[in-house]
Amino acid sequence: MKVAKVVVDVPVSSIDSLFDYEIPDELLSVVKPGVRVVVPFGPRKIMGFVIDITGSSEFEKLKPIHTVMDYAPVLTPELLNLSKWLQEETLCFRVSALQAMLPAVFKAKYEKEVWLLADEGELPFDWQILTQGREVFPFNELEESGIKASQISSLVSEGLIEIKYVVKGKNRVKKDTYIELALEQVKVIEVIEELGKQAKRQKQVLEYLIDTNGEIRLKQLMDDLGVTRAPIKTLEDKGIIRLVQKEVYRDPHANSNERTKPLPLTEQQQQVIEPVLSRIDENKHEMFLLHGVTGSGKTEVYLQSIDRVLQEGKEAIVLVPEISLTPQMVERFKSRFGDDVAVLHSGLSTGEKYDEWRKIHRKEVKVVVGARSAVFAPFENLGIIIIDEEHETTYKQEDYPKYHAREVAKYRGQYHKCPVILGSATPTLESYARAQKGVYQLLELSERVNEQALPHMEIVDMRKELEKGNRTMFSDPLVEKINDRIKRGEQVVLMLNRRGYSTFVMCRECGETVQCEHCDISMTYHRTNHKLKCHYCSDEKPMPNQCPKCESEAIRFFGTGTQKVEEALQQQFEHARIIRMDVDTTSRKGAHERLLKKFGNQEADILLGTQMIAKGLDFENVTLVGVIAADAILHLPDFRAAEKSFQLLTQVSGRAGRHELPGEVVVQTYTPEHYTVELAAQYDYESFFNREMQIRRRFAYPPYYFLVLINISHENHVKVVDASQRIANMLSQRLGESALLMGPSPSPMLRIKDRFRYQCMIKYKNRQDVDEPLEHVLNSFQKEMNKEELQLTVDFEPYYFM
Ligand SMILES: Nc1ncnc2c1ncn2[C@@H]1O[C@H](COP(=O)(O)OP(=O)(O)OP(=O)(O)O)[C@@H](O)[C@H]1O
Ligand SMILES: [Zn+2]
Ligand SMILES: [Zn+2]
């Protein structure tokens, strides 16, 4: 008897182990590791992942697998093992880890379709009855036909059919009409000569088809020639052309046609790429930290490393933060490697993501450029993994499994014996410290490719501006410099860090602020619909006309949102053309790219935006960067506040003077004496690192200690306090020597969505000192979590403390 070891989709830790099921004979050739199955579980039927297949089981009487969901494995053996590691590393359910590696379509409600990849005649006879000439038909017809699963699976593996997943109702596999010649070219030329004068349109169509070698999208042909459907219909009726339905991949980044060639590397680039190339050649794992100032040509180093990987017939993963935010970056990979590139990011629809994933799964591409989850791309012959802007916190997933892409990359790099490059102008303290200890190999690019100095950064003390009587949000030096650029026809990038600076509503008479009823934070004024909104729970209410407390009518919104800055800016610079980029103006699909394109075409003088404009932009005409308020994140309640400010200042100033024209930066602040601002102005990463490391050491923060955060929440305040206390007691009795327990304490945001929130933090040096105690807590509280609606989450390497 064959037995399948299955991880079932029941997220309860006590049963989060492998279950044995009998494989019925008719499924023997279909059930393989990496295939999803439906199995009986108690009275229900549920989904499960097959992890392994063995010849026997220690249990008697096994239940049989009910049916299969996939006819080819959706996960590779490597990824199946990785899920085990993720489970242990992040203390998540194995099934969550497995699901995190698959595109969202597998979690949504979907239907299956059968696609014929071969001519009907090549299929077994009973199939021909079933298809009735269709190229695509619903999977349930196949199920009802009684055709054996083993036959389906062998047709899939022979490539005669494919089973596709289609999200219910939307995102269907996209098809388009193509037009092609139905006759040989010589015949068509004869036809053209015989066509009369009135048939000018028909002639045009045929000539076009000969030129384009026979096959093109109907719509494109009609657009290009400006013809209607009439001549096409006539040609079709005469049997000279044919219209066919074909699948098109939804390609959100189509339209890159020009290919770029590798640039001759600078001496520094040559030096840093060498060790990477040798690791690729030697087939050896190594973690590299590429510390390169902005504009030093890190991307070119990535591109040429990937080139080598492709030459050796291997594959590459490139992670980019929030990729939809840097269309320029995607373009650089697409224009170097063309159709070999798949792009995976959160801006894509479920269907688009599935299309991109399938290209990887079917080995149609060799490079994937994507956001965090692209680290799970199901390549089987990886030659390199690159994490650009490695300091970005988006590489850590905040939901289960709470993994960090850097650690997953390391795991996969070891498995495939290939190098991993972490690149940044401002590495995290953790990574730089590891590089100093030799855990990572440090590679440095200290100069810009164009040999320009990094732009001069001027720090403006806003307190002095106020003393001088300047009550606007723009200092005199900034105004002067912006005017100067507008006069010269150069461009300006202005950054407003929105976090901590959103518009909140306050009464000028009594100081009352409008708070969210569910979250204990200020609500934000939204001008477009004149409403107040909570950014944590999305609750909305109308803007009050008078103060709810003292009834004064002097209730106003305060703070600085990008809209407000835009208005002030327009007043100050009447004739300036301004583009505003923030969540509001970029929420529509494609808006981001459109705005950047406009700016790139110099259809605007000033690009005003939130931190989303700090990264990756490369515009040659930008010679001035302004930071409106550097203090905004410097004072967040987060031990990484200084590090984040340093990173942001460095990144945004890197947008100026990247090409021929020299750049300049103006930073406005109320605390110019802060070491972060001072050292950022000198681009002195080393000194900042040393200074900040002293602080981290003094307060026992990373990289000196690891952190794990335990969040506890409940709708009842008393219950959450009680549970937190019991958890803390349990932990303190069990924690190992290196571990320090802090708390329990109320979270900085005490209430979100009507739940009260408490937290405990553990600082530790050895993972063994916390693993057992945490598992013990999770197991002991399992019942309360199920019954009492207590929520308990464990977050290793936390980035979010609110
Ligand atoms: N060897 C080279 N020769 C000529 N130009 C180069 C070379 N390498 C890179 N460049 C160009 O220099 C500019 C900056 O390079 P790139 O964007 O790769 O730097 P980066 O380090 O990735 O920058 P950032 O971190 O600021 O995004 C780009 O316009 C790029 O095309
Ligand atoms: Zn009031
Ligand atoms: Zn709220």
Automatic annotation (TrEMBL):
GO BP field: DNA recombination; DNA replication initiation; DNA replication, synthesis of primer; double-strand break repair
Domain Helicase ATP-binding span(s) in chain numbering: 279-445
Entry note: cofactor: Binds 2 zinc ions per subunit.
Name of the gene encoding the protein in the UniProt record: priA
SMART domains tied to this protein: DEXDc (SM00487), HELICc (SM00490)
Quaternary context: Component of the replication restart primosome.
Cofactor(s) recorded in Swiss-Prot or TrEMBL: Zn(2+)
Cellular compartments per GO CC: primosome complex
Reactions mediated catalytically: Couples ATP hydrolysis with the unwinding of duplex DNA by translocating in the 3'-5' direction; ATP + H2O = ADP + phosphate + H(+)
TM spans (from-to): none
Residue sites binding Zn(2+) 2 per the record: 516, 519, 534, 537
Classification of source organism: Bacteria, Bacillati, Bacillota, Bacilli, Bacillales
One GO MF term: 3'-5' DNA helicase activity
Pfam families: DEAD, Helicase_C, PriA_3primeBD, PriA_C, Zn_ribbon_PriA
Protein name in the entry: Replication restart protein PriA
Residues engaged in binding Zn(2+) 1: 507, 510, 547, 550
Classification via InterPro entries: DEAD/DEAH_box_helicase_dom, Helicase_ATP-bd, Helicase_C-like, P-loop_NTPase, PriA, PriA_3primeBD, PriA_3primeBD_sf, PriA_C
Superkingdom as given in the UniProt entry: Bacteria
Residues covered by the Helicase C-terminal domain: 542-710
Database matches in SUPFAM superfamilies: P-loop containing nucleoside triphosphate hydrolases
Recorded family membership: Belongs to the helicase family. PriA subfamily.
Function: Initiates the restart of stalled replication forks, which reloads the replicative helicase on sites other than the origin of replication. Recognizes and binds to abandoned replication forks and remodels them to uncover a helicase loading site. Promotes assembly of the primosome at these replication forks.
Keywords of this entry: ATP-binding, DNA replication, DNA-binding, Helicase, Hydrolase, Isomerase, Metal-binding, Nucleotide-binding, Primosome, Zinc
EC number: 5.6.2.4
Keyword Plastid carried by entry: no
